[in-house]
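INFO  loader      accepted 1 record
INFO  loader      residues=420
INFO  predictor   begin
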Amino acid sequence: MRDGDGSGESGAAERAAAAGEKVSALFRSARSRVRAGVERARASAANGVQVPAPEAPVAEAEAPAPEAPVVEPEAPVAEAPVAEAPVVEPEPLVEADPAAEQQAPVVVPDAPTAEPEPTHEPELEPAPTPVPDTVAEEAPTPAPAPVPRTAVLPPAVAPVPSDAPVVLAVEGLVKRYGSTVAVEDVDLEIRAGSFYGIVGPNGAGKTTTLSIATGLLRPDAGRVTILGADVWSGDAAEAARAKRSLGVLPDRLRLFDRLTGAQFLYYAATLRGLDGATARKRSADLARAFGLHDALGRLVSDYSVGMTKKVALAAAIIHSPRVLVLDEPFESVDPVSAATVTEILQRYVRGGGTVLLSSHSMDLVERICDSVAVIVDGHVLAEGSVDAVREGRSLQERFIELAGGSAATEGMEWLHSFSD
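INFO  predictor   done
INFO  writer      dumping tokens
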């Protein structure tokens, strides 16, 4: 019994061992075939040929499985994990599908189709800079707007009526200094209510004419009458009557500069026969009008040139004469004071007074005077209303033409050769 049992157990062990060997051989064979299949698949994938994955020989291995009785097959089963290799390794073959590799280049060419955009079209914008722009700039050149010169000229003051009485007349006036002729045959007529201007270059004879007209300088020949009274007749009473109607602002005036402004105006008023109260009131009015009210208590010697000119003009007006003779009344006077003086004189003329003045300011004479005389080298070259004298041009242009100012600048090419 014991021997029989031993032989039975040993036979079973042998069969189990044989079965295990067989199973191991099957697994080794399957593994080698799987590896061979994987190698073929990789080679085919490299050549672009798709090879089906090799089937695992699991079915053949299942047949001997029933022969394994209750014997402990756990040891050989431990080698079973080799079966996982055929399942995992074939998966990379699917990712290496050449169809996917062929589709990628088809998508890539689609991107360049979006490039035909007109990216260079904005360069056409600088092209619309046409040459006609230069033509547009030349347009203002042929437009001489100042052709109608009369439209640019300031409106002239209407002249006084020709039948207005003559308040100051100069006839055949002559004055010489040795061989130098200051004035020669000067004739002027200033009518009542006129704002009369005398213009001329320096040394033309303006101041000489006004000095003779006011009785300050004796002429060599000629006659001056003021309101019918002869200034140089030799009759002292007639001369005094003529001068009482005058207010004079002379050139190179000399004032009593050791007096205050208030004292000087009071003295000028009383010399003209005004009483003290009237003299003080008119002094205050004129000082306020000329902007001298704060300077009346100061000495005239402390006045500026412009202030001296204004206080002398106030002294010429203070007795309200019928005729004012003013030599350069606006010289050294600031624009604000000049505007005030102009307004005072215009009010004086509108009230029936007459003004005869000399000036170098053509614009001023053109703007406020109704009549003008142009004196050059002691001769009257033009005389009459402002419109008649300027002949459609500005008074300055006409004056330069008469005085020959444009010809005087010829022949001075040396101005272009500098000393250094």
